[in-house]
């Protein structure tokens, strides 16, 4: 498979490139795209087949669910069965931004996208080019980081190319990501929020909006099974010799 790379200008986004990338997604192809955290490897979240391709390209264990990316908080309506006041408050305060929230999923979301879990993970990225792409595609985009599983997450299009050349259809290049740290993943309940994976939004920031914020017990006790399946796998393993 040939991997196409197309650049977009941050200040003057090339509409034709966004449209081309959106069409690849709509046709079930894999597109790597920038967000404010890291480059994501996107596919149509509502097609089982597309999620399969994502797992294969990354070599990712299929019990590790994907985050669905959407252009605004309105877009979650058909994907979840309920939006609590707490969930709404988090979206109002931290979206667009590096906060992923998990909510009870609707039947529209295939089991493969959530690794068979009853909740779906949702995020609205703080990146204009990315949100334009999500709008143009018109479908929720399931995207893990665009690296081979177990390797560091990519923050430039070149990083993506080095891992994914020949494995994916398209790379949308908007220059380096600004944050470089992954999103915070939280499970939202009516009266509290549980941090499943620490990331770009801190516990203290969450506490400005929700009074009870806890860490998943697996983050403080290694004996416990993590609620975010991805937390049990090795991350950030650079493939380089280390000297002390
Ligand atoms: P990545 O794909 O590398 O950005 O990682 C996504 C993280 O979110 C992983 O740790 C996943 O296990 C976690 N995650 C995604 N969906 C869910 C979900 N429905 N419930 C719990 N954790 C999730
Ligand atoms: Mg990752």
What does this structure look like?
A hairpin with a 4-residue loop joins strand 9 and strand 10. This protein has 244 residues and is α/β, with parallel strands linked by helices. Helices cover 25% and strands 18% of the residues. The mean pLDDT is 92. It has an eleven-stranded mixed beta sheet with strand order 1-8-2-3-7-4-6-5-9-10-11, sandwiched between helices. Magnesium ion (MG) binds next to loops.
Write the layout of secondary structure elements.
Layout: E1 4-7, H1 15-26, E2 31-33, E3 40-44, H2 48-58, E4 67-69, H3 85-94, E5 99-104, E6 119-123, H4 128-137, E7 141-142, H5 157-164, E8 170-173, E9 184-188, E10 193-197, H6 203-207, E11 213-215, H7 217-220
Parallel strand pairs: 1-8, 2-8, 4-6, 5-9, 10-11
Antiparallel strand pairs: 2-3, 3-7, 4-7, 5-6, 9-10
